[in-house]
Design goal:
It is built from 17 helices and 20 strands. It has about 500 residues and is α/β, with parallel strands linked by helices. It has a seven-stranded mixed beta sheet, with helices on both faces. The longest helix is centred in the last third of the chain and has 18 residues. It is globular, with a radius of gyration of 24 Å. It starts with 5 loop residues before the first strand and ends in a 28-residue tail after the last helix. Bound molecules: flavin-adenine dinucleotide. The site of flavin-adenine dinucleotide (FAD) has 37 residues, from α1, α2 and α7.
């Protein structure tokens, strides 16, 4: 049994990693916690997923900030596990590792034509508009009519950002390159497609109602898309939330034609399964073919053989996020998660990997709101505490001086890794707020003048330099390092 405090590394400073660190720090164990993050900024998808025009949800950052600001959980930013430091090296320095690396890519949608150049992963678009440092700085916004496949909140975010007038996004924290790109967006019509019916869509009521409040954007739903079977009725009976979603959809369907005068529109089409991406002879997207579906009694659907072609020039897949594997850890390729039991990471042989845990979206898959990462962390930490009390947790090194924070930082410095700290994030945070303050007023569609709370710094080098107190480089947007850009979007670096 260790006589010194337990040293634990948490990898991924999104909500799951921060909540897990917080719960562990209050578990009663004598423990030191280092929180690793591959970006120089914490907060994961709250900063790089939640849409910029959702400041209310971004406020969760205030609660997460309070946890990290205490100082007992030490942030080590700009360090990617699997790249800057291996899992085995971490195991030498720490008694236990908790992976909370989330999800950063799109779940696949296997339909013909999906590889056409104008068929985009929704997660990649989100990374662009939220200013993720490792994504190219341009986005090809050239389509007047766009399809979004998927009826969850991410689909709604994408549809809203595409349909909205750019001035109304200019007041948010979007970085300058995104503001510039959106200004030239010619999109007037976004078509959102769902395979199933109103009782099965995954929107949440608040987000769906809010969609209809965008200035000069109408939301349209076809009256014929309201069908229910036994399974649907049961789903509605048991979920107040789903009933509210249906009510909001019905509200859109019942609008009178004279109410629909906006210059931009979001059309929600239900019972339309994506069948094929239609391309011209040069391989460019010219449409989406969908198949009408019908309910089978249990809330599921089957194809009717009735097809319809929608003339769109680009398509966004929003059928779910997916986690990415980390070298040195098992990975479930089908579910895109780290295999685990109650958060204990499992080897292929079905044995727990000693002292290695997972929590959040990388543990359960990309479902659930930010709040659910907290309950998830509770279970993972309860199991870690049980293992610690059973004396199962210890670093792999024989040399005790190599265990913990100071030895880790010395090792990183020795390797030339420009790690950042919590104090560094506070510098960058203040810098971004100042950019917002200095931006001046923005006139939005309603004619109102608004100010900006923050403007994001996008370049990893700039984020790192500001965080390390080395001042701000002139270019806060500079293109990402080519070797960090995901292969699927690397071609856009040359655009
Ligand atoms: C587009 C979108 C919009 C959303 N909107 C809402 C909303 O409005 N309301 C709501 O409640 N929820 C929303 N969510 C859900 C919410 O974002 C998730 O529930 C939550 O972020 C999951 O937390 P996590 O910590 O598991 O993962 P993440 O938030 O993904 O955090 C994982 C962290 O790990 C880091 N990381 C990854 N790999 C490594 C590595 N190898 N080394 C070091 N660090 C690494 C990442 O950089 C990231 O910071 C949204 C999600 C998406 C995708």
């Amino acid at each position: 049994m260790n006589t010194r405090p337990l040293s634990v590394a948490v990898i991924g400073a999104g909500p799951a990693g921060i909540y897990a660190s917080d719960i562990l720090s209050k578990s009663g164990l004598d423990v030191n916690i280092d929180l690793f993050e591959r970006l120089p900024a914490p907060y994961g998808l709250v900063r790089y997923g939640v849409a910029p025009d959702h400041p209310r949800i971004k406020q969760i950052i205030v609660a997460l900030y309070k946890i990290l600001q205490r100082g007992d959980i030490r942030l080590i930013g700009n360090v990617e596990v699997g790249r800057d430091v291996s899992v085995a090296q971490l195991q030498e320095h720490y008694d236990a590792l908790i992976f909370s690396t989330g999800a950063d890519t799109d779940a696949p949608l296997p339909i013909p034509g999906v590889d056409a150049p104008e068929c985009y992963g929704g997660a990649d678009f989100v990374s662009w508009y939220d200013g993720h440092p490792d994504h190219p700085r341009t986005w090809p916004l050239e389509a007047k009519e766009v399809a979004v496949i998927g009826v969850g909140n991410v689909g709604l975010d994408i549809a809203r950002v595409l349909a909205k007038h750019s001035e109304d996004l200019m007041v948010t924290e979007v970085p300058a390159n995104v503001a510039e790109g959106l200004k030239n967006n010619p999109c007037t019509d976004v078509h959102v497609f769902g395979r199933r019916g109103p009782a099965q869509v995954k929107f949440t009521p608040l987000e769906l109602r809010e969609l209809g409040k965008q200035p000069d954007v109408d939301v349209l739903v076809d009256e014929e898309d309201f069908e229910y079977d036994k399974g649907s009725e049961e789903a509605l009976r048991s979920s107040n939330q789903q009933r509210q979603v249906v009510k909001a959809l019905e509200g859109y369907a019942m609008q009178e034609p004279e109410e629909l005068t906006a210059s931009h529109r979001i059309h929600i089409h239900l019972f339309q399964a994506p069948h094929e991406v239609l391309t011209d002879e040069d391989g460019h997207v010219v449409g989406l073919r969908t198949e009408r579906t019908r309910l089978t009694g249990d809330g599921n659907v089957e194809g009717t053989g009735e097809y319809r072609d929608w003339p769109v020039q680009s398509i966004y897949r929003a059928v779910g996020y997916a986690g990415s594997p980390i070298e040195g850890l098992p990975f479930d390729d089908a579910r895109h998660v780290i295999p685990n039991e109650g958060g204990r990471v499992m080897e292929a042989e079905g044995q727990p990997m000693r002292g290695v845990y997972a929590t959040g979206w990388i543990r359960r898959g990309p479902i659930g709101l930010i709040g659910s990462t907290k309950s998830d962390a509770q279970e993972t930490i309860a199991n870690l505490v049980e293992d610690a009390q059973a004396g199962l947790l210890h670093a792999t090194t024989e040399d005790e001086t190599q265990v913990g924070h100071d030895a880790m930082l010395a090792w990183l410095a020795d390797q030339g890794v420009d790690y950042t700290t919590w104090e560094g994030w506070e510098l960058l945070d203040a810098y971004e707020r100042e950019l917002g303050e200095n931006y001046g007023e923005v006139i939005v569609t309603s004619g109102e003048a608004k100010t900006r709370e923050r403007v994001k710094v996008v370049s990893r080098d700039a984020m790192t330099a500001i965080s390390r107190g080395q001042g701000a480089p002139e270019d806060l947007i500079a293109q990402p390092h080519a070797d960090r850009v995901p292969e699927r979007v690397a071609h856009r670096l040359a655009d």
